[in-house]
Each structure stands twice: as structure tokens, then as C-alpha cells.
Specification:
8-stranded antiparallel β-barrel, transmembrane, Putative pancortin-3, Cap15-like_TM, 3 helices, Cap15, alpha+beta, single chain, about 40% strand, Lipocalin, about 200 residues, membrane, elongated
């Protein structure tokens, strides 16, 4: 998984808040341990590290808290996690050919990292994202933009390793999306359009 950006989201402020809360929580825990020692009349060799608390809070927040509906509503932070069926149309510049294809788009997402993979039903290659960003447009939905690398899984002559860019416009319910992709002009001069539909809500 790699980092990605949600435009307008105060990620730095959230991290600062987690850090401040970790300091407060670790201080309270250590004071509680001191009080327990006095009540027991003997020392307890346990100290709660602020760094450990901050790390645990960050992990919990990144994996779970950001998915809470209230958080997503307030911060307009989409949860793309899941699989989507693809119906695509590709166009080849060199021959002016076009062809329809089907595939699966899989997205694994945390608050701070994401991984997007795409595989068509009639191809041995798979596209994997290398960076990405998200933009929210009020009343329209979310735009997911990412760059990818595609490496064929076998030695088919007409398939070459190549890079490209995808742009998807998701409805606010994140069930349907339309998009386009553009391959680099050096190794594979293709571009096309796609329609997505979530297949596991």
C-alpha cells in the first residue's frame, strides 16, 4: 500500500490531535499506576510510554475510526474499500481499433494508505497503483485519480510493461462510478473509458 491525499482533509491536524490525546492518556495511565502502587503498598514495575500509546491510537484510527459514518460525513472522507465490476471500452491509437472488455477493480484502503489493482477477464496482466489522490465535489461525489504500473504475467509479445493514469468519478453513495484511463505513449498507446459498480457493499 502507498500514501495518498484527500484534498482539503486536515491530516496534519488529526495527527497533532492524536499526539496530544496520547500524551494526556499516557499521563493519566501513569498517574493511575502510581496511585495503584500507593494503594498496594509496593512498587509496580510498569511505565506507559507516550510513543507506544500514540502508535496504538494511530493504528486504531487508521484502521477503524476513520470508517465511522460520522467521521466520513464531517470530513467528506470516502471509504472505497471493496471490489467493483468493470465494463470498459479501449481505443488503440496505432490502429484506430476499439474493443469492449470486462474486469475487476479491487481497492484496499486505510486512512493514510491505499492500494488499487485492476485486472481484466481476458488478460494476464494486472495494474497496480503507485500514488493517488481524492477530490470531493459537493452534490457530485468523489473523484479518485491515481497512477499505475502494469506488468504482464507471461511473455505474450504484444503485452509490455507500461505506466498510466486512471480517473474515476464516484457517486456519493460510492456504488457506481465512471472513468477513463490513459496509457503512456511509449510502450502501449491505449486509452479508454470504464463503468464501475460495487459488487460487495
Amino acid at each position: 500500500m502507498h500514501n495518498y491525499e484527500v484534498k482539503g482533509h486536515p491530516k496534519v491536524k488529526v495527527i497533532i490531535f492524536i499526539t496530544i490525546f496520547a500524551v494526556m492518556l499516557s499521563t493519566w495511565l501513569n498517574l493511575s499506576i502510581d496511585l495503584f502502587e500507593k494503594m498496594m503498598g509496593r512498587p509496580v514495575s510498569v511505565t506507559v510510554s507516550t510513543v507506544a500509546v500514540a502508535g496504538a491510537l494511530y493504528f486504531i484510527f487508521s484502521k477503524y475510526v476513520w470508517k465511522w459514518e460520522l467521521f466520513r460525513i464531517i470530513f467528506k472522507y470516502p471509504d472505497f474499500n471493496g471490489k467493483y465490476s468493470i465494463v470498459g471500452m479501449s481505443f488503440k491509437n496505432t490502429t484506430n481499433e476499439n474493443f469492449e472488455w470486462e474486469g475487476i477493480l479491487s481497492i484496499k484502503q486505510d486512512w493514510d494508505k491505499i492500494l488499487i489493482s485492476m485486472k481484466s477477464k481476458n488478460s494476464s496482466s494486472e495494474s497496480i497503483s503507485v500514488n493517488g489522490s481524492v477530490v470531493y465535489h459537493p452534490m457530485k461525489g468523489y473523484k479518485l485519480i491515481y497512477s499505475y504500473e502494469n506488468t504482464p504475467n507471461n511473455n505474450v509479445d504484444e503485452l509490455h510493461k507500461h505506466n498510466g493514469t486512471c480517473e474515476f468519478s464516484f457517486e456519493e453513495n460510492l456504488i457506481n462510478a465512471t472513468g477513463n484511463y490513459y496509457n503512456d505513449g511509449k510502450n502501449r498507446e491505449n486509452f479508454g473509458s470504464m463503468e464501475l459498480r460495487r459488487i460487495n457493499e
